Amino acid sequence: MRLFGKKARWTEDAVTDAVRNLEIPESELFEFAKSDPDLAEKTGFSRYSYWGSTLSVFFKNKGTVALLLALVILVAFTFIQPLLPGQYEATRIINHPITGLQLSNIQPSLSSVVITAPAGTELVITPWENGQWAAVSNVISTIRARSEFTVTGFMGDWVEASFNGQTGFVRNDFTTNLKLPDEPEAVPYPSRANFPVKLHLSPQDLTNRGDELFVKKDSLKIRGDGITAQLAVEADLRILPTEAPFLFGTNIAGQDLWSMVWSGTRTSLFIGFVVALVEAAAGIFVGVVWGYIRRLDRIMTEIYNVIDNIPTTIVLILVAYIMRPGISTLIFAMSITGWVSMARFIRNQIVIIRDRDYNLASRCLGTGTLRIITRNLLPYLVSVIMLRMALAIPGAIGSEVFITYIGLGLPVSVPSLGNLITVGRKLVSTSQSYQLIFPTIVLSIVTVSFYIIGNAFADSADPKNHV
Amino acid sequence: MAKYILKRIGASLFTLIIILSVVFILLRQMPIEGYFDNFDKLDQAVIDARLQQMGLKAPILTQMQRFFTGLLQGNLGVSARYSVGAPIADIIAQKAPLSIQMGVLSMTLAVALGIPLGGAMARSKSRFWDRFGTAFIVFVNAIPAAVYYIFIQSYGSSALGISMLFDRSRAISWVLPVLSMSLGNIAYYAMWLRRYMLDELNKDYVQLARAKGVTSRNITMGHVFRNAFVPMIQYIPTSLLYTVGGSIYIESLYSIPGMGGLLVDVISRQDNPMVQAIVMIYSSVGIVGMLLGDVLMVFLDPRITFARKEGVR
What we know:
A: MetI-like fold, 2 domains, 12 helices, B: mainly alpha
């Protein structure tokens, strides 16, 4: 619009005055417009890119992005965990430094402290050397099974006893099952147990199931006899001469479950990724060819029937027999059996859309087969393929659990979620159920993340959700 | 169509022979020590005699000829290791019905619950049913079946006040195994039906129908559901027929004397005649299922054709 005459001059003057009054240089009055795809769209110009839009729609969903981040962190952590300080090796069997027994089935705990003892606690020292650590317990001696001792005081869970000239305390519960008279308060009287029992210095058990605990030397006041000591300050009595805890406990062989779970997650995810990739590559290629090229359909269907009907177990057993059991063998075995179902899935999808009108039109216009496949068919299937791929990774982990269950999985020396869960399954109703729960939780987190991310990606891969 | 089906059946017979031959040859590659429980303690003469008795010493073609001749006479043979000397047909006739009954029940439950759930989820996107269904699907997919089966068994049997083990004559002891078996399938049907229905709901014909004033209910049931169900119908005959295989986890958990785990068991014990017989049954079932799936797909969606049209490609 243009203004004429007086009014125009008046407006022009007003603007000039305003500018002059503001004292802004003319160059600052205008600024360059930023490129805005939404505004550009309105003018009919389109810089639409399929993958760009898919990604931008995907990243708009904050929850999914958070989950993706969590998954990335989890994967990264499986690699970082062995490098952290104070970690046990995943396959190392942890022995008690003095008895040499395996520290099996230790309950999960946030620290390696068994008991925190107050200052002044009387302890017995076991001769054992390791830097700043000392091995202690409060066991004076062990009373042999069916040996008689004298009870000199009764306090319910514990009795005061003297044996071989030593006085101390003996635990009185189902683990010792002491022979006591009808009126146990009427001391003194002789008693015995059918098991070896321990004579403790104080009425509490400062041992780990009978084995020595460990404490820093500087918190001890060792007496002249070299056997007994007193805690100078309040101190933590630990299960091992280290501050590293068993966060997830230990298994029956005395291996640290925390390291096993992370190492197993790494192994299982690796297997899952590789198998899913092979499955996708082989499955999509074969599925497209099978579905689109009509002449091949019958022969491919029969080939599929042959491959699909050879029991996986036979292939797995033969592969295990020919190759050494290990990760690569398992990946090989799962890959050569896994891709067929993906191929069939793609084939069914292709069969459904190959004769749609737009493809017919495209063919009439002389579009080449390769172009139809890559431009007309596959983009149409991106959303379902993505969902299927996202499920293939947890699926591969699940079938690893199954393969381990039927006894053809990885050797015990290679921890994986599969063999951890298979071992844990037998302990579900015992106090060691944590050995099932921790690997299951990690597996569940992995599966849920992949499922939700896959679904969100499938949604954002649908062009209808792009504008 | 009839011609196509006949051709498919003819080709399938041929495929079946190839499957059996491949499995037959693969089985002969198994290690010899697998045929014996105490291989190390046996001397060569005993081993040879046993192998001879099992017919494994003959040239492979002779063995194959023997097997196929027996098959043509309707004779599946006798078990070599699983239950020595028992006719395989008897063993299977005893085990299969239970697995089929249980499988069909669980399939029925899965379809009856999974399909409506999927439909409800697609119709109420991001409202109650969608949320509930997603939570259920995520839960079932997240926890390995091997783990939640155990929990269902231990908590379910104490809640119902029944024994943990299966008792065929008591109807109530069917509940837990059937329920456990169907959970995965309910989630599977719901998940894929929702996905396909949402894909379908975004199509132009739905918008046209809506513009014409077709009710939402008619659109979902008459148009969307029918189109979305096409890719799913493919799998239903196969899954229905595969119930003959039973479920390895469930049957071992509840000690159900069915087919579950039988194949894995006889393969690891290298009972060759049993493996061949079971593979034959399973693959026939698989092939028939796939054929039925294709036929059903054509019936449901007439745009799909398998019969070759001249000049199409």
